[in-house]
Description:
Number of strands: 29
Cofactor: Zn(2+)
Largest sheet: 9 strands, mixed
CATH architecture of the largest domain: 2-Layer Sandwich
Radius of gyration: 32 Å
Low-confidence stretches: 1-67, 94-100, 581-593, 1064-1069, 1216-1223, 1265-1276
Region (Disordered): 54-81
CATH class of the largest domain: Alpha Beta
Amino acid sequence: MSEPVAGPVVTGSPVIDKENRQDSFNVEVMMSNNILDPLALKKCLNADDTSLVTAKQPQASEDTLDDDYPAPRSPKDVKDPSKYRLRAFTATCVSSSSEPKGEPVTYHYYEYIGPKIRTMGQDDRQYRLIRLLNNMEVMIIKENEARQAGASLTVGVGGIHDLPTYAGIAHFCEHMLFLGSEKYPDEAGFRKHVYNYNGCTNASTNMIETNYHFMTSNDGFYKALDMFAQFFICPLFNEDCAEREVKAVDSEHKKNIPEDSRRLFQLHREFADPHHPLNGFFSGNYQTLYENAKSRGENLRQVLIKFYEKYYSADIMKLCIKSNKDLDEATWTAVRMFSAVKSKGNTIPRIVTRDGSGHTRPYRKERHMGKLVRYKTLSSTFMLCLLFPTDDHKLYYMTKPHYYISELITYCGQHSLQRYLLEKGLITHNIYTACAFPYMVGIGGVFRVTFMLTEAGYHRYQEVIEAFFSYVQMIKDAGVSESFYKEIAQSVENSFEYRPCKVSYHFLTYVTDRMRKAYLPADKMFSGVEICEKFSPKVISKVLSDINSENFFAFLGSSLDDESIEKGLKSHLHQHHQINSNDDGCDAAVASANTKCYYPLTEKHYGIQYGIQEMDSKFMNSLKTVQPQPEFQMPPKNNFVCYDLDTLPYPAKNDKPTFRPTLLIHNKFGEVWHRKDDAFLSPQGKLMVKFIIPSVVKDRQNLACLRIYTQLINDLLLQISNDAEVGGIRINVNILNDGLGLFLTGTTPKMLLVLESIIDKIKNFNPTQLSFNNATDAFERILKNHIHHRPDLQSGGILGYTSAKIFYNWKETLETLQKEIDFDTVIRNSQEWFKKFYVKVLAVGYFDEDDAIGAFNKVIDKLQPNPIDLESGEINPNPGLEPNLGQIIIQTRLENEELMNSAVVLDMYAKSISDPKSVGILNVLEKLISPKFFSSLRTSQTLGYMVSICRVETEKGLSCLRAKILGEGNPSYLRLRMLDYFKQFRANVLEPITAKELKSICRSLYSYLARPFTDVNEEFSHYSKWIQCSFYCFDHKSRMLEELKHMTKKDILEFWDKYFEPLSLSSSDGDDSEKRHLWIHLYSSRYRMPTLYERQIYPETILALYGCLEKENIIVSSDDGEGIDYSDISEIVSSIHSKYPGFVNQDPGRKGIDTSVEGCSIVDQFKSELLARVSKATTTIDSEELDKAFESKKAFPRIALLMAIENYIEPGQNICVEKSSSSQVVFATSDGNMILEDFKSYGQSLECTKLLVPQHSMVPKYAEANPDDDSCQNHL
């Protein structure tokens, strides 16, 4: 170098994994970017180059802050010798051969040497912050015992930066980026490599940034990192991927349309200033991207490249790399791989309205304040959101006034706003607060308060708003409480110091998220987001002053139509008016109820119906002078907050801890398990108290009562839960399949005190009629909202019948709730439950044996249950079921017409989880199947946005592979494509795999699964799983890992053939088959669902082809029998098959592509015969639309037609073939599958699974004591 460099220069080559040696570091590319040019380096070191300046950060002004805050991070910091030093190293670029390539190259970077970066107290990883010469900021992390390595890169460009004419372009870029680079052109290569090394990868786009991340095992990391880096250096953005990925974006959007939370966020954007970038559609869809480009005569790929070239700059990228490698080695790797990313300066555009007015805020007083946006939800929900524009919250990061304000507003103890509204029957759940876009430069923030209302609260929303401002006035009048602030500050301090460290990719994205907050100094990039460092009454009062009646607007949502709103409004307000005859606000509201249309507007992307109105002027004026209600008071002292956790005694750290709990007590009342933490040395712990209540699962009434009881208990625990959470203890009361579960998580010193308070509430259960009414109302709406769940999630309501002896779906539960449940019934049944139960206690973490036994004693002593006969089977009141052999299909119609996607879910059952070898093979198969399953069905065939396969263990001890597709295709088509993949899997994947490749996969899997527990919560989950199912096989993982060491190709093939291999598209496998394949078909309203008779007559290929023609609107199903029917399609296919009896789809890659002359002739003949039949019917088909539907070689109708010809089955040939002992509810189809008419009756006909035999000695450490022996009392 012609210029001297500051700091030490490290020479030599970093150690490179020989197995992954490659030309990973492209010197020529780096030189072409002038990174190594001495003049360019001098410019970077000495000049005030504009490319080194990030977006201007808002500075703390004297009129808002007491003292100046530390300066935010900036690329200019590298000039400060107290913060950074220039480092260099020399390395040789390594090629695929063992000989060095080219001359040694010297690389430079800046290393942060300022104040130590504060990380979480339990985090023992090593951190190094560097800045590359292209201005990319990089965090290098070394985790000594890490068995996986990974990287996360966040780009400071998101949906708000979309091009004005291309909504969703940032999201589309995220989809396209991972599909190949110049150096690694295979579009599926990165995902395949990551999966082969037992990893995962994903990406996401939000409003202000886009994140990309991956993880792999250590031995596959360096190649994965190089592939990852190339996406930001030379991505391909292949033309043939563009339309396919637009369809994936479109499918993702359609999946999101029914979700009310996303609809509300879109409405927030719709309501913003129409000239502001916030007012946009950030998801994008087919119309805003592909069709828009087509109509404008532009190439979408070229538009995407321009977007990428304009905004994707190293200056706005934050990279985190975590591995078990030495910090120097990892640093060198990062510098070499990512220095070639182009620096284009700060490319984040300034957020400002597009009308030239210069406004930066999306919500302004003259346009938005005092407005009420009434919108229609899809689910049965009543919601009120109040939004208050505020300053940028990052201005006050040391004080965090929103913490203080949020804790007061959401406080739920006596004399609180929440308690007041609950007792008036106006809300059903906790009040929620949030800060919207708090970290976006230049547009301010929004403080949001959300109320989940009852129907009465919806119609009387003005009362809720008035009560809110009354409570806020009480807070203002009381002044800023230093003692309350200190409780909050201590709570977040304890959380930051002692909570378990994040693991997996969540940790990587957490780091880059924190790095993106450039307003924080480097040493505070983690702690500054959470810790309350400075009590400033002035700052808190300043932010609190923004919460006033002249600075808000509101969103009011419900699923009610206009008529129901008017009827309910008049009913509730007239009733309230009789009680409060002097309430002018009610008179005004009643008068305003004459409006007939409440939703005159429609948002164009989600179809949200809404209306905007001015809030009543009299009501708004009354809010200016509202006074505190006498019921409102500031919260009392919180006794659960711990101030001395750093003084607790800890045991000596055990370098080789025995991760196995000890059974302390086992008797007729229950069992106690304990594991003292000697690995993490933290005050954290987790406590489970599981009540097995035999009477709960005996009928529908008790199960419905348990749901109401859980809600009522949670209501009674509101104050305890609130105080405990501030004190670092989280309470969860959950319904289990055989009773009730109580889980406490967090700091342990006061956990038994919390438990005692909870047991007292259970013992003295005294809810009010009003709370019962609220609970039943909320539960009823939860049940009705089941139809709005994502289609694949609704399959659980079917699988429940086939997996557990006692199960009731949401409709049965709703019927029971409406006909059999009243206040007295819940009280009476709950009293019976706790007369006889069996309790399982598990205490893991900072607990002594006496703590675990003490928890058990508190439960037994206070509730005084009758003992359970351990031999009676009462502690397993709901056994599991084992599905019948064969391919069983269950079909159902989705009731929500807004759900545009159908779904197929497949469970392929294998052996019980008690067999470690079976579980090991399933793990290997999952890793072998997943990459190509996704790339084939999702990426290549675009069957839907959600395509996945994973290993599942049921609660009842069965193991299976669960595959699912959520997409626009009809279920029959989706199933056939999935089956086609599995048909190819053995020949294309299992048979070609070499012993070396299998060993590599098993080694990678072993490395991942053999990692030790990372925190107390993970350890607890492992024990809890086996204790709850009564198997107690705590060494199951080690036994399975031992099997992995000796896994052979023969083992995999035999297992696949026995349990999974589909010999054909039918299921005629033979008498000795062990295949139990359960298919769930969920039909969206856009498709006709075949009847049981049609299922028996027509093979799946005909149903699939018919559905594909429906999808393209070629044919429309008709109930009058006049249109094209299954019989017409079947006859056409039969005719064509007779002419091409030996047709084989020329598609070796199974990508749906057949370019043969024969295949094209089949398509032409089908179209011709279909048009001929239409001419004789009362329906019509547009021939141009028909040609368009078959035009693409990957078009669904084309693929379905060729499948129907290739796999031709004569209609009705297998009818009445019995394949099951459950013949009264199972019927054979023409292609040899089985269709269920009544899946509930089918479930009742199945045999129960065998109970798992406990794998742990049930002899307790402390035998059952003699009640007369005082020395043993604490063990009873």
